[in-house]
Amino acid sequence: MATRRVARDWRGQRLAFAFDAAMPDSPARPAVPELLSPNRMPRRGRGFSERSRIALWHSLAHIEFVAIDLALDMAGRFGAEMGEGFVRDFLDIAAEEALHFALIDRHLRTMGSFYGALPAHDGLWEAAEETRHDVAARLAVVPMVLEARGLDVTPPMLVRVEASGDTRGARILKRILDDEIRHVRIGAKHFSTCCERIGKTAETHWKTLLSLHFRGALKPPFNDSAREAAGLPRHWYATLA
After folding, report:
1. What's the longest Cα–Cα distance across the chain?
2. 3-class DSSP state of 133
3. Confidence band (pLDDT; 50, 70, 90) for 40?
4. pTM attached to this predicted model
5. For residue 221, is the peptide bond before it cis, meaning its omega torsion is within 30 degrees of 0?
6. How is domain 2-6+46-240 classified at the CATH fold level?
7. Which of 70, 112, 91, 77 is nearest to 3 (CA)?
8. Given pLDDT bands bounded at 50, 70 and 90, which one contains residue 110?
9. What is the C-alpha separation between 60 and 232, in angstroms, rounded?
10. 111, 237, 240: which is closest to 168 by C-alpha?
11. Helices H, strands E: what count in the chain?
């Protein structure tokens, strides 16, 4: 609710374009969930039992929760150099991530659970720490790799959720997928602006920044149509997979 209020205040011109407060190294966190390193996270299992369903939706809630922080940090850390349109875009994204989180948390509660009931992955903020010095690096890794990965994994997850009879969950995933295409497109747009400003070719500079700041791997299968709609042509990432 606080995130959505900030976005409304910006749209209503109740916030000044001023950056006189230092951004924290990491965002404040609620007392729960317990944050674990990736190798300590319990496995969800292969089936679609009630327990595994709750674990799936809890992990999605955590991803959306951290996505709020990532969008707000983008606006606050890099807004002064990137301009008012950049701030507007990422505050709007933060508000949408907050809505996604609220929808998932409400869905979890219909299953008798809630966000914080299970441990969560502690590695999602690492990309922000790694790229806190460079807006182009942040855009290259967070929207154009991490969020783009959501475009690949959400459609098969949606099919699985629909097959289980969870129509409400399927509607939530469809809403998230539609919004995330736009989020990735916004990231790619501002990345291209950064590259134009410093005289770099966008595709080449993206690959260079990934080699420096992204420790993971780009793994197929890819949702090529969604990625194309989001401004990520196949020839950018196919050779890196």
Report:
1. 53
2. coil
3. confident
4. 0.95
5. yes
6. Ferritin (1.20.1260)
7. 91
8. very high
9. 23
10. 111
11. 10, 2
